[in-house]
Amino acid sequence: MPSNTPGNLVPNPEAYTTMSPFQMRYEVLHLAKDILEQNAHMAREDKATDRKTYYTLDEVITTATELNKFISNKG
Asked: Using one digit for the tens of pLDDT, what is the confidence trace for 62-74?
């Protein structure tokens, strides 16, 4: 399974050939959460008033769905 260390947003593509559908779904959810978490963190550090400094479960699911569409070439 690919590593989820910071800065490693693109895991080894060969790892996906041995992953189960459940593992792939987990990885996409994790990537979506990491993206939203990073965006919220940057907004907090910038003391941004025009960007959200938090994210919701619905946003994670929506982002994961969009990522999955892109990965599956359905979007």
From this structure: 999 999 999 888 6
